[in-house]
Amino acid sequence: MNDPESTVAAQDGEIGLVEYHDFVCERPFEFECERVIPSYQIRYETYGRLNASKTNAILICHALSGDHHCAGVHSLSDRKSGWWNNMIGPGKPIDTTRFFVICSNCLGGCQGSTGPASINPVDGKPYNLDFPFVTIRDMVRAQKVLMDHLGVNQLRAVVGGSMGGMQVLQWALEYPDFVRAIIPMATTSRQGSQTIAFNEVGRQAIMRDPEWKGGDYEQGEGPRVGLAIARMMAHITYLSDKGMERKFGRRLRGEASGGLSFDAAFEVESYLRHQGQSFINRFDANTYLYFTRALDYFDLSATHGSLEEAFSGMKARALIIGFTSDWLFPPEQNRMIVHAMLRAGKAASYAEVKMDFGHDSFLVDSPMLYQLVRAFLKEAAS
Amino acid sequence: MKAGEGSSGKSDHRPAEKRTVDMQIISDWVEPGGKVLDLGCGRGIFLQYLTRKKNVFGVGVDVDANKITACLARGLNAYHGDLFGLMSRFSDRFFDRVICSRTLQELQHPADTVLEALRVGRFVTVGFVNNGYWKNRVSLFFRGRRVRNEVYPGKWHESRTIHPVSVTEFEEFCRDNNVRVVNRVFLAGDWRTRRRFLPTLFCGYAVFDLTLDADLQPGGGETAKPG
């Protein structure tokens, strides 16, 4: 998820150099589990300008392994730009010449926002597993505090895929008068059994690594093997059979053609190992546990009695986008959101994009996806 | 370019004018403020017209992603996918009206579609090209081949019409399925002038308003039940 590798630079203008900001809130935050932290920090980036009436803001919500850096580069020597650079920028579908685009690292994260690796001001030690359980709703409520801090009066749109899509849905329910339009994609209103199962395998890989130490590992150390395996396994669920066949097939690595061994002989193996290795250098294992748990507990129908009931107070216009080859959050789970919204008499549309890249399709260059987002945002602007 | 594509370019032009007539007829039947489902909504021109004129809660369905995009740009609710897949998700009579205009003869399962539409909609408006139109008959009778026009462009295998239907056949379908016809309008070969005389022969385009409920009257009212 949020692997910008397949991102193709769009022809339109690039956003160029960007930098992050830290918002430190000295007021306490009460989690859904009723536990409280005395203060917290949210790291975020913004692109474009907030208009005079403060109504042109679009909030981007990131997925499990994503972060606040969704467009542009931090330095001209950066090899990769932000994870949704193909979607966001001057003249791109989320046009930074028209919209003020905000993306923040989720509460509980490890890329600058307060999370399990942060220092608990009460005892001066990292929270680790003492960090309160974070939910999708907690992430959204923290984002709202940031919106108020930035002086945003309303959100023209909230956009995101996967775990980001869950936040998008939550935004429309939590702050109906604040959100004018939503675009959740490759997502679900209710984490299913299969997805919980995959998350559990990932968590077990981490927690059974002796270096995890009950969550009390030192910074820079920790369950590197477990986290890498969790990432390798999860990464498969973001792809598709067809996409992997086309990208790797049964191709062997050059140096591995000698004889049989358990080294990474196939290209797909070395690709996954690389994914695992690069992930442990940028992601905290405890955040992985907390975020996958947040996904698992997301169930709008259970929380509200039924999905129609959940959407009954929604005021935003919705465009839900599913991807044909996504088997993690399949099109049907995306359609179900639209069915319930329409049954509740809400303005909702559904589009299905035919792509072979599995769950990660939403991050990949796709003229159809761009066209849909452009058309929907064009109307939202009028 | 296939033979059919040339004439479809031409037909894009002409129905714009023709469409206004059936749009007006159907919109007169639409209850203001109701819920309307448009099967095969295309670019959403008609749905937008209804939304503005009758203030309906409209939902359009189409299988073509480009048409969905056009609907989104108009601010409409558009559903990309299968007609049955969507209709099956709604309870009986959820919609005040389901519209199946111009697409009936192009549907894979026209009868099932109309019957399912009658389940989810209190009224169902069906518009179709009358295959019994005299020019069609003449062409087949004298030339031994199907008529060629904007509805039946190109060769026999190139037409989008896979289930040609005549006025007589459609009325028989309604009788067989206990479907009550509450309104019907027959347009001549120009799809503009109304025709009352021998519609099965002289009607080019037919619009039917249907319901399964014995008591329902078009316009949303119900007849008073005796005693």
Description:
The complex is a heterodimer of chains A (382) and B (227). Chain A has eleven helices and 14 strands. Chain A has helices at residues 136-150, 163-174, 193-207, 224-237, 241-247, 267-280, 285-296, 300-304, 307-311, 331-343, 367-381, and strands at residues 21-25, 29-30, 36-37, 40-47, 57-61, 88-89, 94-95, 100-104, 119-120, 125-126, 155-161, 181-185, 317-323, 348-353. An eight-stranded mixed sheet of chain A has the order 1-4-8-5-11-12-13-14, sandwiched between helices. A two-stranded antiparallel ribbon of chain A has the order 2-3. A two-stranded parallel sheet of chain A has the order 6-7. Residues 1-11 of chain A have low confidence and may be disordered. Chain B is built from nine helices and seven strands, in the order ααβαβαβαβαβααβαβ. In chain B, strand 2 (57-62), helix 4 (65-73) and strand 3 (77-80) form a beta-alpha-beta unit. Chain B has helices at residues 3-13, 15-29, 45-54, 65-73, 83-87, 110-120, 134-143, 167-176, 199-202; strands spanning 35-39, 57-62, 77-80, 95-101, 121-129, 180-187, 205-211. Chain B is an alpha/beta fold and 227 residues long. A seven-stranded mixed sheet of chain B has the order 3-2-1-4-5-7-6, sandwiched between helices. Classes of the chains: A alpha/beta (382), B alpha/beta (227). At the A-B interface, helix 10, strand 14 and helix 11 of A face helix 4 and strand 3 of B.
CATH topology of the largest domain in chain A: Rossmann fold
- Identify the biggest protein-protein contact and residues per side: A-B, 24 and 25 residues
List segments of chain B where confidence is low: pLDDT < 50 over at least 5 consecutive residues.
1-16, 220-227
From the alpha carbons, calculate the radius of gyration of chain A and give it in angstroms: 20 Å
Pick out the low-confidence regions of chain A: 1-11
Number of helices of chain B: 9
User: End-to-end distance of chain B, in Å?
Assistant: 66 Å
Could you name the CATH homologous superfamily of the largest domain in chain A?
Alpha/Beta hydrolase fold, catalytic domain
Number of helical runs of chain A?
11
Count of β-strands of chain A: 14
Mean pLDDT of chain A: 94
CATH superfamily of chain B: Vaccinia Virus protein VP39
Q: Name the helicity range of chain B.
A: 25-40%
How far do the termini of chain A sit from each other?
A: 33 Å
Shape of chain A: globular
> Architecture of chain B, CATH level 2?
3-Layer(aba) Sandwich
Going by CATH, the architecture of the largest domain in chain A would be: 3-Layer(aba) Sandwich
CATH fold assignment of chain B: Rossmann fold
